[in-house]
Amino acid sequence: MADFWGADQDEESMQREEDERMRAMEEAVAACMAEQGFEYIPVDHSTRTVVVHDDEEEDIESVEWAQQYGYGVTTEPWADEAPSVEEEWVDPNEDYVNAMSPLRAGGLLRGPAR
After folding, report:
1. What is the Cα–Cα distance from 96 to 93, expressed in whole angstroms?
2. In this predicted structure, what is the pLDDT of residue 18?
3. What pLDDT is stored for residue 25 in this prediction?
4. Is 25:46 a contact under the CB 8 Å cutoff?
5. Other beta carbons less than 10 A from residue 31's beta carbon
6. What is the tally of structural domains in the chain?
7. Whole-model pTM above 0.85?
8. According to the model, what pLDDT value does residue 56 have?
9. What is residue 68's predicted lDDT score, i.e. its pLDDT?
10. How many whole angstroms from its chain centre is CA 34?
11. Contact 46, 26 (CB under 8 A)
12. In this structure, is residue 71 part of a structural domain?
């Protein structure tokens, strides 16, 4: 798992790689939404920080670790260590979604009728 998460990289490389991964994902979401007739403003995740942990006492590849924390995709055992964010994040798509009728907004979750 350490290899998958890039544990051998320095913080700057990890941040750059994560920024690129998130940018590509946001562009893919925007393209998909446009194909379905929706507007979507790609979110800039580069303002968020990748937190690097150098804790040799934790065996993140052990069965016990996975049983307690999963694989780190939806759980973050170091969440309390994350740097505090001075400004509250605002979704750039919030006003657009809030202005939709409930039926139209529901299409965002369900996708096109088939």
Report:
1. 5
2. 86
3. 93
4. no
5. 11
6. 1
7. no
8. 61
9. 81
10. 21
11. no
12. yes
Length of the chain in terms of residues written:
114
Does residue 3 lie within any of the structural domains?
no
Q: How far apart are CA 74 and CA 44, in angstroms?
A: 20
Q: What is the pLDDT along the chain (114 residues), one digit of tens a residue?
A: 555 555 567 878 888 888 899 999 999 999 999 998 899 999 888 877 666 555 566 777 788 878 887 766 666 666 666 555 566 778 888 898 889 888 888 777 665 554
Amino acid at 92: P
For residue 103, report the phi and psi dihedrals to the nearest 5 degrees: -65, -45
Provide the CA 58 distance to its chain's centre, in angstroms.
24
Q: Which candidate, 6, 25, 24, places its Cα nearest to that of 15? A: 6
- Structural domain includes residue 2: no
43 close to 92: Cβ distance less than 8 angstroms: yes
Tell me which amino acid residue 96 is.
Answer: Y
Domain that holds residue 59: 11-110
In a domain, 6, yes or no: no
Cα 78 off chain centre by:
16
- C-alpha 45/C-alpha 20 separation (Å) is 9
Q: Which residues contact 17 (CB under 8 A, 6 or more apart)?
A: 6, 9
